[in-house]
Amino acid sequence: MKKITILGLILIFSVMMLMGCSQGSGNDELVVGMELAYPPFETKDDKGEPMGVSVDFSKAFGEYIGKEVRIENIGWDGLIPAVQTEQVDMVISSMTIKEERMEKVDFSKPYAKALLAMLVNANSDIETMDDFNEPGRTIAVKIGSTGHSYAEQNLSQATIIPLPDESACVTEVAQGKADGFIYDQLTIYRNNKANPDTTKAIFIPFQDVEYWGVAVKKGNTELLDQLNAFIDEFYADGGFDDITEKFLKEEKVVFDELDFEWFFSDVNE
Amino acid sequence: MDGDKNNTVTKPNDGKNETFKAIGSILIALGVFVLFFYISLQRLGLELDFAFLYQFRYRLFYGFRMTVAISIFSLVLSLFIGVVSAVGNESKLLPLSYLAKMYVQFIRGTPMIMQVYLFFYIVGTAWGITNRFWAGVLILSIFEGAYISEIIRGGIHSIEKIQLEAAKAVGLSNKQTLGLVVIPQIVKRILPALAGQFASIIKDSSLLSLISVIEATQTIREISATNFAIFESYIFLGFMYLALTFPLSMFTRYLERRFSYEN
User: Cβ contacts of residue A128 below 8 Å, gap of 6+?
Assistant: First the structure.
């Protein structure tokens, strides 16, 4: 009796697995994964609809290849697995092109670039990055961010505190639990502006530029070719100038004043 | 429950046969389970490679040890908080009783993620608790204490009035009644539930990765954040927790069986 039940169970499982159709997107739909927690690049409007630079960028690409774009909001840790398991066709989420990531996914050519900066407690005596690379110093980073790998490579003497989100990192610094928080310049600038009494911003001088790319499933050259052609065209047509004008007008002024490189300047030159 | 009954009914000379049958059934069940995951992986075309874990063995061991340490400290402290809260709940001093009731209601009615942030960044900072390990133990104990409090309260209420009357009739003092009649029975009755709660403590300690306590989950998050082998990492994490919770659940079963006979 029991054996028959078990055999039946196995049979049902097998049939289920053979019959169940894959959950991938339809042909006319392009599913783009992003973590909607990084304004103004990936965020939500007041009604909860996806909004921002990456959203407009993906919609322009959708138009270019004639597909309807659907945005999936996925946590940072889950973005690459979502591409790997084909839950999304691509990830456009201000993701830096990194070698470790390239082992899991393929990247388009860069469409933007960024540099890191550091938020420190207002009472801190820290002035240069060298002050940080000492035992007893604590650095908050967002898990898996480029700030995280920068800290591991360049601030190995300090204690690194990896946290799941940006707001926790900023809280650590504002409360003095951590000496600093490393993230991109825009985030640091914005959080410094939001907490002017408790924090100050330090910009890291010597570092490599980080290039952002679109991640697709390994081996999907068709989509990759379309993306690369689109990025060239979008640049040539001034698409990124329009996006800057729409979402990043204020920041552009500040970046120019501080002599920082802009996100969309000379990316592929 | 049915399984337990079957075991007791079994004739002694059938014992060996039954054991073989049980092992066979377990193997078949395990086979179905593994096959299901294997086919799922095949369908997605994912290949898993666990070899990199060896490279991180020291960190993994450290994280595992940290989870064990946090769980043990939290078990002791949450038991203490649970007893105090349960006794407070039954207190005739009304403000104390309401305080205990509010504590249990608040903790059980809100998600732990919110409590972790609230206690660490507001309460912890205000009172100077900066050590992440002890802050973590404290937060976890406060959380689990509310559940333990309810288990203990259930135990207190399970003591029939007639026993107290009987104790009085035999001439025991209040102290003797408590020590010889009430407490031993409460302990016996709530022990299986308490052991089960310990498994929850082990699992819930994973939420302390939110404040970067370097326990098992945080270690895995850090590793998978750098090499992106998220599936292998989290499957291994599952086995680390199972290594702790499985023996515990066996022990809980054993306690349940033992005490169900004695009653």
Answer: A202
Distance CA B5, CA B257 (A): 10
How many domains in chain B? Answer: 2
Q: Which domain CATH number covers A244?
A: 3.40.190.10
Record: contact B224-A17, CB cut-off 8 A: no
Tens-digit pLDDT profile for residues A73-119: 998 888 999 999 889 999 999 999 998 899 999 999 999 999 999 99
> Do residues A157 and A171 share a domain?
yes
B115 close to B146: Cβ distance less than 8 angstroms:
no
Find the closest chain A residue to B29 by CA distance.
Answer: A6
Tell me the sheet residues that pair with A106: A216
DSSP sequence for A108-172: -S--EEE-EEEEEETT----SGGGTSSTT-EEEEETTSHHHHHHHHH-TTSEEEEESSHHHHHHH
* CB within 8 Å of chain A, chain B residues 126-155: 130
Residues spanned by the domain of B110: 61-258
Enter the ipTM. Answer: 0.72
Asked if the C-beta of B226 comes within 8 angstroms of chain A's C-beta atoms, the answer is: yes
Instruction: Determine what percent of chain A is predicted with pLDDT higher than 70.
Output: 89
Q: Are residues B158 and B30 in the same domain?
A: no
Half-sphere exposure of A11 (CA within 13 A, CB side): 6
Q: How many CB atoms lie within 10 A of CB A263?
A: 25
Note whether A122 and A193 are same-domain residues: yes
User: Do A106 and A221 sit in the same domain of this protein?
Assistant: yes
Q: Which domain holds residue A132?
A: 116-203
The answer, as to whether pTM is greater than 0.90, is: no
Among B residues 30-49, those touching chain A with beta carbons less than 8 Å apart: 32, 35-36, 39-40, 43-44, 46
Amino acid at A84: Q
pLDDT tens-digit profile of B121-170? 989 888 988 899 999 999 999 999 999 999 999 999 988 888 888 888 88
Task: State whether A133 and A108 are in the same domain.
Answer: no
The CB density around residue A49, as the number of other CB atoms within 10 Å, is 10
Residue B54 lies in a domain: no
Query: Considering CB atoms only, which of B46, B210, B225 is closest to A84?
Result: B46
Backbone φ and ψ for A70, nearest 5 degrees, come out as -120, 125
- Angular region, A181: left φ>0, alpha ψ -120 to 50, beta rest: beta
- DSSP H or E segment with residue B204: helix B183-204
Kindly report the nearest CA distance between residue A240 and chain B, in angstroms. Answer: 30
**A140 alpha carbon, distance to own chain's centre:** 17
